[in-house]
Amino acid sequence: MNLLTGKLGEIAARGKADRIVFISDIVSGTLKDFITFWLSEMGSSEHIIYEPFSYEPLRKAHQLVFGMDGIPSYRLDQADFLVSFGAGFLETWLSNVEYARQFAAFRTPHEKGKNPFFFVGPRMSLTAVNSDQWIATAPGDEYLVAAGMLKFLVDAPLIQNIPSKQRDAVKAFTSGLSMEAITGRTGIPEETLRLMALQFSRAERPLALAEGLSFSIPNATETAVAANLLCSVHPGSRKAIDFQNPSIHGTVDSAARMKEISEKMKHGEVDLLLIYNANPVFSLPSSWDFQKSLKRIPFIVSFSSAMDETTESAHLILPAHTPLESWGDYSPRPGITGILQPVMGPVFDSRHVGDILLAAGKKIKGPNRFPTENFYQILRNSWQVQGEKKAPGTPPEGFWQETLQQGGTWEPESREPAISLPVPSKFSPKPSKVPDLGSKDFHFTAFPTIQYYDGRGANRPWLQEMPDPIAQITWGSWVEIHPLKARELGIQKGDIVVIRSPHGSMEVPAFPLSTVPLNTLAVPIGQGHTHYGRFAVAEYGNPMELLPDRIDKTSKGMFRPAFKVTLEKKERHVPVAHTDGSLFQHDRDIARSISIEEYRQGVADQAEPHLYLPLPEGYDPKKDFYPPHDHVDYRWSMVIDLDRCIGCGACVVACYAENNVAIVGRDQILKGREMSWLRIQRYFDPDWGTARFLPMPCMHCDNAPCESVCPVYAPHHGKEGLNNQVYNRCIGTRFCAQNCPYKVRRFNWFTFTRPEPLNWQLNPDVTVRQKGVMEKCSFCVQRIIEAKLRAKDEGRKVRDGEFTTACAQTCPTEAIVFGNLMDPDSRVSRLIKEHRTYQVLEHLNTKPAVFYLKKLTQEPFKS
Fold first, then answer.
1. Domain coordinates in residue numbering, the chain
2. 632: left (phi over 0), alpha (psi -120 to 50) or beta
3. 99 and 92 in contact (C-beta within 8 Å)?
4. Tens digits of per-residue pLDDT, 34-77?
5. What pLDDT shows up at residue 539?
6. Is the pLDDT of residue 432 over 70?
7. Cβ(354)–Cβ(326) under 8 Å?
8. Quick one: pLDDT at residue 652?
9. pLDDT for residue 422 is more than 60
10. Which pTM does this prediction carry?
């Protein structure tokens, strides 16, 4: 601390306080205000809010088309037609958990079927596989698809009475683009574009989204402008775009601003750099030479709680509290503010970043300018002042306590947000031409993953162990290449390849997969750390090494030209740790689907499914050798709606956290020894050109094959239908795993330990298993017991919905429902009567207690 205050005093004495720069990730509320105040007291105003994904093209497009600066909140649940031009809103785009919940509402079946959804982009992402049709393009050609739709909407015209200003803006954008040129460049039939435009025009509230990440694809600004123009020509689209409550992502500084600061560093114009929760050395393109710029700074202070690539260059590290140790507040958009409370004391010798700045401020400027004792007091004072405005008449302390109790404040949103209809700017696109390819050339795209985002999740073992939803790969990076192209080049899974661009190169294992077009390569972002922590994977791949250092003059984001890359196979091979057993179902009908027409007919006929219920009425003396089990009051069961499941894997990570599931690492996964109690099975569907997901926990069968083969009765059928695993009885014969047709039992080959302080996160309600013991999903029996004890104290039975399993609680789309099958009014009892219901491998007569609702499919252009 003395070093920091000494440097601050020295810089102030030289009159160079304007050379102090503070770089942080997104901060809001009290902390942001305090950082601004602290910098002003020190004589600086340079607070750079840095995020690798800053959406400059999206922000510029909103300014050009809607006259609004910022990023709105989108209301997918208000739309009835959706087309996404690369926006992965089910993965990492803006507010993915919120949008996943809205998407589930958007796709809820109604009398006309399901609301249509199209995805346009160079990779079959998690969002793409949840669409009715993935329309594959080369990276940078997405805007051409939108332009084709615009031409049909305006030139045909499919939408009548378009205001002349909007019509002129569209014509300015599409001038010079003939339909022949669009279809010739993209390879998409003209009829497909016409039908997409037709559905867009017939919808009441259509919505077009664009990714807006300039480093990910070329022509991001053109694509975002085209998507916004689609929304501008249809008056109903404005009901799904909420500029009254803009996203906090609109407050992030642009890449141009970051480039300006980087140049100042390079020229010795920064004397003190303070970095908090930001890692630009890793997340910026290598061509920026940001690390070299850092070496020109006399003194760098990092408040990071981990030794990342940027912190490695710091002269002084003052580790700040993690969010679990901190007080604070956060406002993702106007009207919603959450209170951050510490759930534990500091693990190490760290402080709140506000306390560090406060102590430095007191020493430099004295207690008169910084009178509060700590940041917690600053936070309380701030909220007490807010209370005078938000709740006049309420005592300030009372308002603070009430806010603390409910976790924050929020204001109700209007059901149908609307934006005014401004005059769009006549934007003439200047796209980067997608280059023609030679025999060994490829288009290239880099994509953020749901596990690692921009790399900040790479040191979290739960996320490393979680398989990628599409590739099913863990603990490493990879490049996706089309299987036909891989076969042509003699490349097999795990072969090390070198990808070279005009700006750099990288080595990465190949993974042939039909998730990219024939001449496109896709690499995930987030791996390839050189400094971050023991769990971050260093080998193979940070795709930022391939990107240029230029800035787009229009959007002020990174300029990502449409360059081509070359691929060279090396004489090395590494095994790729992935968990999928098969790419396809091979007609086993495990993850089932039903067409909208069949669904409507079933509803009309009031058809009920034929099920092998895990109840006495599910037994047939002609088929069943053993008598049914007697269940007392409860028969716990689960229903999983495959039409709502998006395959995100949140339930898998929640199960790891709740049930102390061991992290085994890459080597054990390569041997097929993963320990996850719940897995998401992904099957590609060649008929539909997409994929199906099926969460697979223990089935808790009433006729469980595992119970009859154990010589020591470790698998035990409880009075409430649970297939319990008695750990003290288990001697590790593994007969139960061999006899389980669902393959959901896991064997502990070792006693897996958790290095301190990770052992602190163990759930004290759940036994930690040892070497030689079999384990599996318990339906979160510890939660069942807790609910029963609470009900017993109150002299009643457990109510439906009073508690649920960790997977059901975490699912953002509410695809999982848990409850008592013996309660005829419970949600599970009602859901299993729907004619979509089925059981996996029901012909084996295991009588599983996990039921599935078939996924609903529809022909994308049926209407």
1. 2-49+251-328+346-389, 56-245, 441-573, 593-857
2. beta
3. no
4. 999 999 999 999 999 999 999 999 999 999 998 888 899 999 99
5. 74
6. no
7. no
8. 97
9. no
10. 0.93
Given this model, what pLDDT does residue 156 score? 79
Q: What residues form DSSP beta bridges with 641?
A: 853
Tell me the residue length of the chain: 863
pLDDT score recorded for residue 425: 62
**Rounded-to-integer distance, Cα 794 and Cα 60, Å:** 58
Nearest to 152 by CA among 191, 97, 121: 191
Nearest Cα neighbor of 681 from 753, 556, 586 is 586
pLDDT tier, 551 (very low <50, low <70, confident <90, very high otherwise): confident
CA–CA separation, 59 vs 66, rounded Å?
10
Q: Is the pLDDT of residue 598 over 90?
A: no
Please report the pLDDT score of residue 189 as a whole number.
93
The residues, ordered by sequence, that sit 6+ positions from 735 with a Cβ below 8 Å of its Cβ are 709, 710, 711
Return the DSSP state at 761. Answer: G
Q: What 3-state DSSP class applies to 489?
A: helix
Tell me which amino acid residue 379 is: L
Instruction: Name 85's bridge partners.
Output: 120, 210
Say which residues have a Cβ less than 8 Å from residue 789's Cβ, sequence separation at least 6.
Answer: none
pLDDT (mean) for 648-660:
96
Residue 435: CB atoms within 10 A of its CB come to 15
**CB half-sphere exposure, 520, CA atoms < 13 A:** 23
Quick one: DSSP state of residue 249? G
pLDDT tens-digit readout, 130-145? 999 999 998 888 999 9
State which CATH number among 3.40.50.740, 1.10.60.30, 3.30.420.10, 3.40.50.2000 fits the domain covering 2-49+251-328+346-389: 3.40.50.740
Region 441-573: CATH code:
2.40.40.20
Cis preceding linkage at 757, omega within 30: yes
Buried b / exposed e along 439-458 (16+ C-beta atoms within 10 A)? eeebbbbbbbbbbbbbbbbb
Q: Which long-range contacts (CB under 8 A, 24 or more apart) does 364-372 make?
A: 364/5, 364/8, 364/9, 364/12, 364/41, 364/42, 365/41, 369/41, 370/41
Q: At a CB cut-off of 8 Å and minimum separation 6, what does 472 contact?
A: 578, 579, 580, 682
Q: How far apart are CA 445 and CA 286, in angstroms?
A: 16
3-state secondary structure 384-420: HHHHHHHCCCCCHHHHHHHHHHHCEEECCCCCCCCCC
- Antiparallel, parallel or unpaired: β 328-333 and 336-340: antiparallel
What is the C-alpha separation between 723 and 629, in angstroms, rounded? 12
Is the CATH number 3.40.50.1360 carried by domain 593-857? Answer: no
Considering just the CA atoms, what is the radius of gyration of the chain in Å? 28
Pairing, β 520-525 against β 723-725: unpaired
C-alpha torsion 546→549→551→555, nearest 10: 30
Q: What share of the chain is helix, strand, coil (3-state, %, to 5)?
A: 35, 20, 50
In the predicted model, what is the mean pLDDT of residues 779-805?
96
What CA–CA distance (Å, rounded) separates 832 from 618? 13
Tokens of 393: 């008449």
- Own/partner contacts of 404-410, CB < 8 Å, gap of 24 or more, are 404/339, 404/341, 407/338, 407/339, 408/329, 408/336, 408/337, 408/338, 408/339, 409/336, 409/337, 410/335, 410/336, 410/337
pLDDT band at residue 30 using 50, 70 and 90 as cut-offs? very high
* Mean pLDDT (the chain, rounded): 90
| Residue 522, both tokens | 């896709």
> What class, spelled out in words, does domain 56-245 have in CATH?
alpha beta
Cβ-proximal residues to 439 (8 Å cutoff; 6+ apart), any chain: none
Q: Are 37 and 44 in contact (CB under 8 A)?
A: no
The Cα 225–Cα 150 span in angstroms is: 11
Residue 615 in tokens: 């109840």
Contact 614, 709 (CB under 8 A): no
